[in-house]
Amino acid sequence: MSQTLDMPGRDPVLRRKRKKFSWDKTSAILTLVPSLILLGVFVYGFIGWTGWVSTTAWNSIIPDFASVGLRNFKIIFSTFRFQSDLRNMVVFTALFIALCLVIGIALALLIDQKIRAESLFRSLYLFPMAISSVATGVVWSWLLNPTTGVNLILKSLGLNHLPEWFLSTRILPGTPLGQIEIALPLALLAVLIAAVWQMSGFAMAVYLAGLRGIPEELKEAARIDGAGPWRTFWSVVLPQLKGTTTTIIIILTAASLKVFGLIYAMTGPGQDFVTDMPSMNMFDTTYQGNQFAEGAAIAIVMLILIAIFIIPYLISTLKQGEEA
Amino acid sequence: MAMRRFNKYLLYVVLTVIALFYLMPVYVVLVTSFKNDAEVSLSQMWWLPHLWSISAIGAAWHQLAPNFGNSFYLAISATILASAFGSVNGYALSKWKFKGANVVFFLILFGMFIPYQSVLIPLLRVLNTIGLYNTIPGLILIHTVYGIPICTLIFRNFYASIPHDIIESAQIDGTGYWGIFRFIILPLSISGFVVAGIWEFTQVWNNFLFAVAVTNPPNQPVTVALVNIAGSQTVPFNELMASALIASIPTLVVYILLGKYFVRGLLAGSVKG
């Protein structure tokens, strides 16, 4: 490209080409304008608007745009419900990601053994991703209903103390902090099972693609050096999958912080908000409670939490793509 | 040799047991959907029906059919529009690396990660103002706009694999920007459209937040209708499971027929720059 630019502009073909080049680049930029306007309004404009609403007094059905500064944020952070949300979100996200990573890599390694039915098994582990979170929630809430479903099987296996699943209100082990107890609400485990069922296949598929990208020579070299399968996995394969793991963690974190349909269909906020999430709280506060400014404040907190993960990730992947 | 064969056998056993766990909900949905009202008892939920009956599926379909139609209208329209935007954007971003292209790409991409709660309040007010609140066209607009980032990403990565030489030689022949798109890029785009289309269709069909925020009966997509059925205490379990089945069939069929492309969309969604 720079070659043509450096050439003296005598040759008519090349001169025409050079001129056309810049005109075409202008066309490329113009092509993007409609999308940039749409996203400028629907993403950045609306986020700004929501941010502004979060600083107003609009907490009834009649809009009131008097500025109250950060009062709405102070209010939501002081409520039992939002504190519970944050606890649930952190506990849920940590467990969700840990389980998806472990199951994902295990499935990917099991499948990546040059077996004949590979694509069949891969499809079976991945199909839940094609199903809506609400259908998933409806079905799993029946499977994990304390009086039926999985508990029937556990009972027939001779278990006496059957789990209450999402109806449980216990929080283990329970360390008080502020108004809430910092620990794992047992009811979240039921949601967690459904969420892992739905998304672990994603981790598997990305890991599988990552495994395929590891040069065979690397594993070969380890084998020649006398490393067994475990040693090869820990010292060769896993370090090579670092980037893949980061990708999975980021995408699943974003998904987990946004989880909505699954909770809505499965448990709702739950008793004492044991299964509540910021996404549910925002929806209820805004559209059931008409507390628009407080709802906006919750939405902004959600956005900031996700942006903390996503922005550095996007910047670094785009930089990598540029260098490649 | 015998050891290896045993290992392989063990591997299949393990894979099958795990597969059964993943299929467990499907089993329960299917056997429950095919039971008649008399046979649905909680204690027998794991048993096959004595008498296979389609009465529950019929009843569920009767209730869901209008919403099913709404979802089709919504998902197909939004998929076509978002893919069209994605295709021209991907072409501009991958084949004409102008200054600042990466910044533009970043600004587009960020839109796919935001929690949509952070745009919901203004969105509903704007839809109300322009008369699209509680309409399927309103939802089509929403899903088209918020589908642009992922579709742009898919097409940008897809077009990156088309060699630049083809475009340069077309330029020397005097073909312009849109000519190259129309006669060179578009004919090579079919599998790109399949990947983007499948991904977008699945996302829109399965979406719940926008659907529940924007629409009331009878304009609700099938996901909202399913939650309404689940929430009413009067619907028997066979009908509820049949409803979940019906709401899931289109995306499942697409997945079964075109799973390979689904995986490509999924991998593209994890932003490999």
List the helices and strands and how they pair.
The complex is a heterodimer of chains A (324) and B (273).
Chain A: H1 2-6, H2 12-53, H3 71-78, H4 80-111, H5 118-126, H6 133-143, H7 150-156, E1 171-177, E2 180-185, H8 186-212, H9 216-224, H10 229-240, H11 242-258, H12 261-266, H13 278-288, H14 292-323
Antiparallel strand pairs in A: 1-2
Helix pairs in contact in A: 2-14, 3-14, 4-8, 4-11, 6-8, 8-11, 9-10, 11-14, 13-14
Chain B: H1 2-33, H2 55-95, H3 101-110, H4 117-129, H5 136-160, H6 164-172, H7 177-185, H8 190-206, H9 209-214, H10 222-231, H11 237-269
The CATH topology of chain A is given as MetI-like fold
Helix count of chain B equals 11
Assembly form of the protein: heterodimer
Instruction: Tell me which protein chains meet in the greatest interface and how many residues each side has.
Output: A-B, 104 and 93 residues
Strands of chain B, count = 0
Widest β-sheet, arrangement of strands of chain A: 1-2
CATH superfamily of chain A: MetI-like
Structure description:
The complex is a heterodimer of chains A (324) and B (273). Chain A is mainly α and 324 residues long. Chain A has a single domain, classed as MetI-like fold (Orthogonal Bundle), CATH 1.10.3720.10. Chain A has a two-stranded antiparallel sheet. Chain B has eleven helices and no strands. The chains are: A mainly alpha (324), B mainly alpha (273). Chains A and B meet through helix 2, helix 4, helix 5, helix 6 and helix 8 of A and helix 1, helix 2, helix 3, helix 4 and helix 5 of B.
